[in-house]
Design a protein that fits this description.
- By secondary structure, this protein is α+β, with helices and mostly antiparallel strands.
- The protein has two domains: 29 residues; 116 residues, Immunoglobulins (Immunoglobulin-like).
- It is built from two helices and ten strands; from the N terminus they run αββαββββββββ.
- The strands form two sheets. Strands 1, 2, 3, 4, 7 and 10 form a six-stranded mixed beta sheet that branches. It has a four-stranded antiparallel beta sheet with strand order 6-5-8-9, with no helix packed on it.
- Strand 1 and strand 2 form a beta hairpin.
- It starts with a helix and ends in an 8-residue tail after the last strand.
C-alpha cells in the first residue's frame, strides 16, 4: 500500500502533462507549418503564449511579417485575417494566404519579392530582399481608421 501512495502523485502528474499536451494539439498550438510550392510558412500569434512561441520560431525563417494598427496606446493593436500575397521578381505568386494572426513566418529562397498585405480595405506593399543566412522582420502598420469597430 505504501508503494501505491508513492506512485499515485507521479501518475497524476504524468496524466496532467499528457492532458495539457493533447489540449495544446487540439487548440492548434503551436500553429502548423504549411507549404505552398517551394515556400513554407507559419501563421498565428494570437495570445501571448502563441506569439512568444512564434517569435522563438522566427529564428528558423528568413522572413517575419508582423501586422499592427495603432490604438492610441503605447502599443498598437494586432491585426488578424490580413490577406498576404508574396510575388517573385517575375510577378508569380509564391505565397497567397490569409494570416491567422499578427505574425507570418515565411521560409523562401533567396531573392527579391514584392509583399502585398490587405486588411479591412487598406493595402500595403513592400519589397523585400531575402539573403541566405539573414533574417528580415517587416512590420505592416495599418491606419487606425481601418481598425474594425
Amino acid at each position: 500500500m505504501h508503494i501505491a501512495h508513492r506512485l499515485f502523485p507521479a501518475a497524476l502528474a504524468f496524466a496532467g502533462l499528457a492532458g495539457a499536451s493533447v489540449a495544446q494539439e487540439q487548440a492548434g498550438f503551436p500553429p502548423p507549418e504549411r507549404v505552398q510550392g517551394s515556400v513554407s510558412y507559419v501563421s498565428g500569434g494570437i495570445g501571448s503564449d502563441e506569439a512568444a512561441t512564434l517569435r522563438e520560431a522566427a529564428a528558423a525563417y528568413p522572413l517575419t511579417l508582423e501586422f499592427t494598427a495603432p490604438s492610441g496606446g503605447l502599443r498598437g493593436e494586432y491585426v488578424s485575417d490580413a490577406k498576404v500575397e508574396i510575388r517573385d521578381r517575375q510577378g508569380r505568386a509564391v505565397l497567397s494566404t490569409t494570416a491567422e494572426g499578427p505574425l507570418v513566418l515565411v521560409r523562401l529562397p533567396s531573392g527579391t519579392y514584392a509583399v502585398e498585405v490587405a486588411w479591412n480595405g487598406a493595402v500595403k506593399r513592400k519589397t523585400v530582399a531575402i539573403t541566405s543566412g539573414k533574417r528580415l522582420h517587416v512590420v505592416f502598420e495599418f491606419p487606425p481608421d481601418n481598425a474594425p469597430r
